[in-house]
Amino acid sequence: MEIRYITKIDIETILDRHNIKYQSICPFPKSGQKAVFKIICDPNPIILKIYNVTPYHTINQMEYVSHVDVDELKVQKNEEIRILTMIIAREVKASKKCPIFPKMIITKDIDEYRVNEHLYKYYFEELVDGITMNESSYYLEENSISQIAYFLDAALELVKKMWDKTYVHRDIKPNNIIIDGERVMFIDPGLAKSANDETLTRTGMAMGTPRYWAPEQQEIQSNYNWTFKTDLYPLGLIAIEMFLPELRRLSEDQLKDMQFVYKKWCEKDQFDKSKSFFRDIIVKLSAEKIFRRASSIEDIQKTLVEFKESD
């Protein structure tokens, strides 16, 4: 069974269900099973997120089996749908519990949309002002230590608010960060994990975006005890890329090699303040061993204060 992608007619059908009259539909880059669209409508633009939860794996697997047990097929299909739905369900749950995420609007629950055997789940979300970090001045212009310190302080405040609700994002990366002036916001908490959540992870499964994921996100155990320290790791890597833009073109392994990065860092800036920032902030955020990372968000924010002063 071939994957079926969402069409403009599908979107128009969904919008018509909810009596939404639109002026235009703007697609965002597709990511995995998720398709995201900005809907220009009155009184305000909104976001429509559609997840393809069709159990293709089970359906295709059964094509090669000579005898199909109908009951077993139904059980497997439902289980695959359940697993695929967990990401969108987790995203919605996080948006309801954590004040830092964009809020669900229009409907109270996730809705379904079907085209023959193809199944999609969708919901509407408020459109937040701003642009993704990789489109912002943080990535388009050179950053000073104080500018990076201001960004990290704002981002750490979000990590703290998530952790207050026992949430860990697990997929912090430049295109999951919205910048609106001095305001910073995280989006797309589809991998966000609460201590109270049903597990989405199977033993040996990797979770997150490889370039920015923490070492513990590879080959993890299903009962892994997640903490805010996992969300510190990508912030340190992003800070490195802000100070050394040329590293964005290098490999993930080079970005995570702190000896290599420190050498590049010192080649750019030999001043004591810059070296202290690397030792006291970058290493505390992105140490390979989780026990070497900062044990308190507040403590690292206090350390950032001295670096927020003008360079």
Automatic annotation (TrEMBL):
Residues 22-305 form the Protein kinase domain. InterPro entries: CC_SR_Kinase (IPR050339), Kinase-like_dom_sf (IPR011009), Prot_kinase_dom (IPR000719), Ser/Thr_kinase_AS (IPR008271). Gene3D superfamilies: Transferase(Phosphotransferase) domain 1. One of its GO terms (molecular function) is protein kinase activity. This is Serine/threonine-protein kinase. One of its GO terms (cellular component) is cytoplasm. The keyword ATP-binding applies. SUPFAM superfamilies: Protein kinase-like (PK-like) (SSF56112). It comes from the Bacteria. It comes from Saliterribacillus persicus. Belongs to the protein kinase superfamily. Ser/Thr protein kinase family. GCN2 subfamily. Transmembrane segments: none annotated.
